[in-house]
Amino acid sequence: MIVSLKNISYRYPLEKESVIHNVSFSFEKGKVYGMLGENEAGKTSICNIIRGFIPNFFQGELTGEVFIKGKAISEYTVGELSSIVGYSFQNPFTQISGVKETVEEELAYGMENLGVSPEKMRRKVDELIELFHLQPLVNKNPYELSGGQKQRVALASMLSLEPEVVILDEPTSQLDPKSTEDIFEIVQILKEQGKTILLVEHKVDLLAQYCDEIFVMQKGEIKFSGKTEDVLTNPEILQFGGQLPQATLFCLKMQERGKQFAKLPLSVDEAVSVLRNGGLA
Ligand SMILES: Nc1ncnc2c1ncn2[C@@H]1O[C@H](COP(=O)(O)OP(=O)(O)OP(=O)(O)O)[C@@H](O)[C@H]1O
């Protein structure tokens, strides 16, 4: 397991109540995990625990154990951790370094800080420009970009350090449908590269399409976890802050009106094929 959390509970400094309660899960290398849950469920806190930001920056009270690649997270330096676990924020604005004047320089910034050789840096920057379609933007100031462009640059910068685990915390919450599609294209590429990905995202239809497994969190606890096709077709998740894909919801409504399904479908294509077969396939 590349990431393991065992019985994690956490209380922020100066707060009376814990916000994470006895959470345990593991990530298998190369799989894509989706995390769903209403606001304040504790999703970002969990991300911050996996990347060591809690307790390195937010102290408070953390109990339980976190292992990254089989080693206790406390045995890694901050630098070592940041090159294994990459994290992308909800708001790309906060992720732009603010000290570089062009997109190209921004892409090299993280590598510069880690002392990567100029040749390797050049190769990596070129690769990222190509992968993220950034050619038209290379000489622009990162602050002059649109939200979607900023998010692409922020993601590319994070990936310059070649993390094995990639955490995307609501990467599309401020993006229009086209930019959202661009980000998910990148998720697909990362998936093909064998990265282990945690995707915190409210767009459940996209989670259904890309994730191997899903967690549903509520009030600091994991209420459901398992294979995407099992969790996202389980109407019980609706009572715990989870959502169902549109096609699943549609078939659930039909089921409530008497149509029978052996198993609720996860996507529109699946729904069409099940309905063509009369519903019970
Ligand atoms: N720095 C902090 N200090 C104190 N409490 C915090 C801090 N950050 C988050 N919290 C609290 O921890 C709880 C979980 O917040 P968290 O941001 O992890 O949830 P979330 O599921 O990511 O929410 P959202 O979807 O709104 O981003 C909330 O009650 C929040 O108010």
From TrEMBL:
Q: What is this protein called?
A: Energy-coupling factor transport system ATP-binding protein
Pfam families recorded for this chain? Answer: ABC_tran
Topology relative to the lipid bilayer, per the entry, is: Peripheral membrane protein
Under SUPFAM superfamilies, the record lists: P-loop containing nucleoside triphosphate hydrolases
Residues annotated as domain ABC transporter:
3-244
Q: Where in the cell is it found?
A: Cell membrane
Key words of the record: ATP-binding, Cell membrane, Membrane, Nucleotide-binding, Translocase, Transport
Which GO CC terms are listed, alphabetically? ATP-binding cassette (ABC) transporter complex
Homology family: Belongs to the ABC transporter superfamily.
